[in-house]
Amino acid sequence: MSFRNRLTLFFLLIVVLPTVAVALVLFRLVATNETGKADARVGEARAAAAGLFGEASRAAKTTLDAVAADTKLTQALSAGDQTAATSRARTLAREVGALRIVVRRTSGVGLDVGDRRAIAPFAAELTQTNTGAELGKLSVSIQSAADFAQLVKKVTGLDVVVARGDEELVGTVAGRPAKEFPSAGEVRLGSDRYRVASFTAGDFGPMPLRVSVLGNSEAVSDAIHNDRLLVGGALVGFLALALIFAAVVARALQGQIGRLIEAARRLGRGDFSTSVPTGGDREFASLAEEFNRMSDELERRIDELGHERTRLERTVRRIGQSFASSLDRERVLEIVVSAAVDGVGADYGRAATRASANGVLQERAHIGALGRLERAVATVEAQALERGEPAELADGAVGALAFPLVESEGVGGVLGVVTVVRAERPFTEEERELFHYLAAQAALSIENVDLHERVQRQAVTDELTGLSNHRRFQEVMDAEIERAKRFQQDLGLVLLDIDDFKQVNDTYGHQQGDRVLREVARVVRENSREIDDPARYGGEELAVALPQTDLDGAFQLAERMRHAIEGIEVPVIGNGGRLKVTASFGVAALPVSATDKGGLIAAADAALYAAKRAGKNTTVRAQ
Question: Is the peptide bond before 182 cis (omega within 30 degrees of 0)?
Fold first, then answer.
């Protein structure tokens, strides 16, 4: 696209489109403003009409009082004389100036005399003067619908329609629609449109009266049209001035920009021998000088980058060698991902592991934003996990590499994967080799971490029972006693010995004895809390350290373990029989049983032998 075309597009995007958008917004605002003013005027007229209606209703109160005080009327109604009551009501209407008198009763005589187009009644309960008995609800009106409509039109200058249900009582405009007018909005009557505002008011019966005030919309349309012409003219003038200015600037800049673009293309091709012309306007002369300085700087930096790349490769290799000596699995993965992303110029990198060869991958470290590269990462990782070999994805739009982290001891399971990915271009052979080297070093380091953790576990774990060994138990006791003294907390200790264990070995053999010991250790472990530390104290004797547990708590836990051991049946090797097992328990606790580790163990041991002497399969507290 030429520079002129770019300027044209820029003009359209920056000037024309925003101007059109502003025009649309202003046209909408003009329409909304004029319509709002019309609605406000109609709303004010509705409020005025409601006020006039209320005044007319209140004015009828005096007339209603005169009617209610007439004894002849109340006597006729009390006697149930419909004819007399109606006659008297007509006479009263003429005398007091009432247009309509209505008495509504739930039973008996009621009446309705006068003009049915009368509106704005005042209502009150009608009672018999001498007895106070209720005769019904009396409604009296002195206002006709026609007079009310003319009064409202005179006061507001707008048209009025008064309707009772589907019956129009009076209207100053023709062509009322079939449906009642809305509370607010616009309606069409014949060929004319009106803004309307309505309110409902009480009437003689249960059906309310609806009063609608209408303002002709033609004036609104004319105002909107005129305002839009004014806004449109101003915006067209602005666009014309902007177009003239853009054309002048484009013509002035095109020649100078063209020379700078050609110079930039030469620099892009690596041609640093030709200088950029420095003539023209002051700004373009400064830009040309900057181009020339950039050319000299680029030429110098090319040589530096060569040395920098060599140094980077040496540094990355040293980082890779440091993986093998690290014993922090998470830190190793963070380093390898960061180094891989930087070393191969990736947009995103991550390391993920799983607990077993068939487990679910869990991300451990990542660098960059995944975004739309998620599918490529999932594809290349799936290939590496399935094959157990490095995988690559290169389709032109994205490049991805994945290296599997193979399970140690040569069993072939893949326990993790390191992945890098970038958009738009695949990885080069050099980048691929560097990534494989870093990932391989990470795999070696993780294998060292696994071996170190395995050795650590073996150093503190009894191989037969899986419980802590005697050395670990002593370390735990030292730490827990120190903590109990510092925070003034209790520390319980349980020692247990399998009853008649020597007889099991002598009768069934040492393999059967090992099975019994493992089963008892399992029961002890399952009945221990997370904070407890069960251990093999020696031979068939086990121990459980109970932090934050007093003597009673230790006794209850020991009893729970004793009952659980009493309930197990260990299969006998070879003959299919079942062997019942019991154990004796001794419990002690700081500070009630002893004041130090030696005293606590001795107290628990003495309680254990007391349990043995008491007949075995029992629990004894230390004295």
Answer: no
Strand 167-171 to 159-164 pairing: antiparallel
| DSSP track, 341-392 | HHHHT-SEEEEEE-SSTTS--EEEEEEE--GGGHHHHHHHHHHHHHHSS-EE
For residue 396 the two structure tokens come to 């032109």
Q: Are 123 and 138 within 8 A, CB to CB?
A: yes
Catalytic residue among 186, 297, 540, 559: 540
Q: What is the pLDDT of residue 363?
A: 86
What is the percent of the chain with per-residue pLDDT over 70, rounded to a whole number?
79
Query: Rounded to the nearest 10 degrees, how much is the dihedral formed by the CA atoms of 113, 116, 119, 122?
Result: 20
DSSP state, residue 592? T
Q: What is the DSSP string of 428-454?
A: PHHHHHHHHHHHHHHHHHHHHHHHHHH
Q: Taking a C-beta distance cutoff of 8 angstroms, is the pair 353, 405 a contact?
A: yes
Q: Cα(500)–Cα(616) distance, rounded to whole angstroms?
A: 9
Q: Helix 71-79 crosses helix 82-96 at what angle (to 10 degrees)? A: 160
Residues forming beta bridges with residue 580, ordered by sequence position: 569
Q: Is residue 334 among the annotated active site residues?
A: no
Number of residues written out for the chain: 623
Q: Where are the alpha helices (DSSP H) in 69-81?
A: 71-79
Q: Domain 324-457 adopts which CATH fold?
A: Beta-Lactamase (3.30.450)
Instruction: Scan for tokens 């390898």, then name that residue.
Output: 336
Place of tokens 């909107």: 224
Query: In this structure, which amino acid lies at residue 463?
Result: E
Structure tokens at 412: 């072939």
Q: What does the pLDDT look like over 267-319, one tens digit per residue?
A: 666 666 666 666 655 666 676 677 677 767 776 776 665 655 664 565 555 55
| DSSP for residue 409 | G
Secondary structure element (H or E) that encloses residue 457, with its range: helix 429-460
- Distance set, CA 405 to CA 34, 357, 366, 385, 387 (Å): 73, 11, 16, 9, 12
Q: Three-state SS string across 112-179, please? A: EEECCCEECCEEEEEECCCCCCEEEEEEEECEEHHHHHHHHHHHHCCEEEEEECCEEEEECCCCCCCC
For domain 461-621, say whether CATH 3.40.605.10 is its number: no
Strands 398-406 and 391-394: antiparallel
Angstrom CA distances, 443 to 333, 405, 417, stand at: 9, 5, 9
Q: How far apart are CA 358 and CA 512, in angstroms?
A: 35
Beta-carbon contacts of residue 481 (< 8 Å; ≥ 6 apart)? 491, 590, 596, 597, 600
CA 170 to CA 152: how far, in whole Å? 12
The 10s digit of each residue's pLDDT in 535-563 is 999 889 999 999 999 999 999 999 999 99
